[in-house]
Amino acid sequence: MTVFECLLLVFLVMCAISVTLSKNLLNSIIIYMSYSLVMSIIWIILESPDLAITEAAVGAGVTSVLFFVTLKKIHAIEREDSDKESSGQQKGGE
Amino acid sequence: MGRKERFESWLNGERDPYLGKVEMKPQKERLLPRTLLKKYKKDHEEAVAQVYDMTNNRQIKYFEKAYRILGVLGCCLFITIMILTVSYLPPIGVADKPVNNEVPQRYIEDGLQETGAVNIVTGMILDYRAFDTFGESNVLFVATITVLILLRALPGHGGGKGKEEADTAKEEARQEANDRIYEPKNDVILQRVAFFLVPMIIIFGIYVILNGHLSPGGGFSGGAIIGSGLILYLNAFGFSKTERLFTEKTYKGVCFCALTFYCFAKSYSFFTGANHLESGIPLGTPGAILSSGLILPLNICVGLVVACTMYTFYVMFRKGGF
Amino acid sequence: MGANLIANYGETVAMILFGIGFFNLLLQRNLIKKIIGLNIMDTAVYLFLALKGYIAGRSAPIVADGVQEVEAYINPIPSGLVLTGIVVSVSVSALMLSLTIRLYRRYHTLDLDQITVRLKKEGL
User: Fold this and answer.
1) What pLDDT digit, counting tens, does each position of B214-232 carry?
2) Complex ipTM value
3) Minimal Cβ distance to C77: which of B103, B150, B316
4) Nearest Cα residue to A74 out of C111, B190, B163
5) What is the DSSP letter of B287?
6) Which of A4, B77, B224, C100 could form a disulfide with A57 if both were Cys (CB 3.0 to 4.6 A apart)?
7) Is the CB of B151 less than 8 angstroms away from the CB of C102?
8) Can you spell out the DSSP letters for B13-34?
9) What are the C-alpha distances in Å from B1 to residues B10, B269, C109?
């Protein structure tokens, strides 16, 4: 329909691909957050304001926060491990 | 000792009639030589190590490569098939599609008179399909409980059954202490911003919930907004402040009351064979806050459940308990 | 090949997103990335559904000025379905993240292959 919508859709695909390719977990979570925000703009273009509000509050807000907390928790466990045994595990947490 | 008594004592296992009467050689315990045992054990370990050696096992390597290639090919094939299917679907944005049948027509043309809700989507999900939404609120509740079971960590009264459990409880307590050390508490900027933002966010959430039948929004979005406000408050001021306001008891009470009210308000359709009953509440003038019958209380119920759920998820993940 | 591929570009994008999410779910070893992939699949399905209900030139399904013609509003049903779906997807991802935390606490890794190997070594 419009150039703007095409741009947003292309941005969605780019975000999805970069989530796949990014090595850093924190980066991919932040990219997913921006993906959700762009999705909420697309809901407004598709004339569904209910969905836009919900997606902005839930998808970009709560889900990303939950991902962040999970990551922090995992880092805390990892740090504790490396405190316990000086040969800490490097794998997985990054 | 008579025969009977002897028999009985033998039966009870008190005495062995052959002991001391029959010549017996002490049996040798069958023992493999220690070296052989060691060898068996080593062989077993080697076999296990070889099977599960990710870097050198050829089969695993081949399987992994094949899996990757097949996975990529499968995804590409899937996308191709789906795009081919999409190319046969009716074009977007055209009105005469099979999707636009008499059901949305009924909802749009008679929705305002039948439900009293200006927002047709809210009228749909909280009146025509309210039972569906009830199930969904219960999904949220069950998800919260499952997360609570999975992440529960109470060092004080964690059952205290075995040593292992006590160990995990101790470990979790230490972990939580760690969590609090690395959290920048009493951050002045965050606290100042939260001081002004949290009331506004929560008031906005209440506004969205109360205007669910008049404007975009409703229980789900408003509840999520209130939940985010509570999460911000928790992050700025710490658990000691939020525990005055929101504890496990609050969660239990609020969710129980909201879900029970919803259940009693809508589950009569079980008994009436999915027929609609008059609620007896006047629908009011469309556009006023106090209109549209049961939709407003149901919206408030859903909003409460969603807000509690979001906040509880966060607290569970942060602390593993209230 | 049908005739509407260009007109249906939004749905095409939804399908590509679904494929990318599925790729993530299948081939990423990291559990958190798998969960993100599942979320992407979710949003792709929602996008597809909402595009089904979209009708060009009509406004959102909120009665304005007493107009109650079908020709004035888009289809409200996909919006209602997706609205409930979004909230459920949050609870699903919360559930999976908590399972991830439990797994990490037990096995100290997020790599699913290593977890599988350790499970097999323990004879489970």
Assistant:
1) 888 888 889 999 999 998 8
2) 0.86
3) B103
4) C111
5) T
6) B224
7) yes
8) TS--TTTTTS--PPPPP----H
9) 12, 82, 72
What are the CA-CA distances from residue B310 to residues A63, B126, C90 (Å)?
Answer: 9, 21, 9
Query: Which C residues in the span 36-55 are in contact with A, Cβ-Cβ below 8 Å?
Result: 36-37, 39-40, 43, 46-47, 50-51, 53-54
The partner residue sitting opposite B220, judged by closest CB among A48, A54, A77, is: A54
Confidence class for position B33, pLDDT limits 50, 70, 90: confident
pLDDT of residue B130: 81
Comparing CB atoms, the residue among A50, A52, A73 nearest residue B317 is A73
Q: What is the 3-state secondary structure (H, E, C) of B255-276?
A: HHHHHHHHHHHHHHHHCCCCCC
Which two tokens mark A54? 């919900």
Whole-angstrom distance, CA of residue B151 vs CA of residue B320: 5
B221/A50 Cβ within 8 A = yes
Give pLDDT tens digits for A5-56.
889 999 999 999 998 888 888 899 999 999 999 999 999 888 888 889 888 8
Identify the pLDDT of residue B275.
65
CA B105, CA B107: separation in Å to the nearest integer?
5
Predicted pLDDT of residue A92? 41
> Inter-chain contact C50–A51, Cβ cutoff 8 Å?
yes
**Structure tokens that stand for B303 in this block:** 């909003």
C contact test, residue of B87, B145, B174 with most C CBs within 10 A:
B87
- Alpha carbons B117 and B249: distance in angstroms, whole number: 34
Report the C-alpha gap between B245 and B253 in whole angstroms: 13
Residues A34 and A15: their CA atoms lie apart, in Å, by 8
Rounded distance between C-alpha atoms, residue C63 and residue C53, angstroms:
17
Q: Please report, for residues A62, B134, B137, C35, C111, the alpha-carbon distance to residue B143 in angstroms, rounded to integers and kept in the order given.
A: 15, 14, 10, 16, 25
Q: What are phi and psi of B24, to 5 degrees?
A: -130, 140
Q: Where are the domains positioned within chain B?
A: 37-88, 118-319
Rounded Cα distance, B19 and C88, in Å: 74
Q: Per the structure block, which two tokens stand in for B130? A: 């309210």
- Strand spans (E) along B149-246: none
Note whether C51 contacts B92, CB cutoff 8 Å.
yes
Q: DSSP string of A16-53?
A: HHHHHH-S-HHHHHHHHHHHHHHHHHHHHHTT-HHHHH
Per CATH, domain C9-121 is 2.40.420.20: no
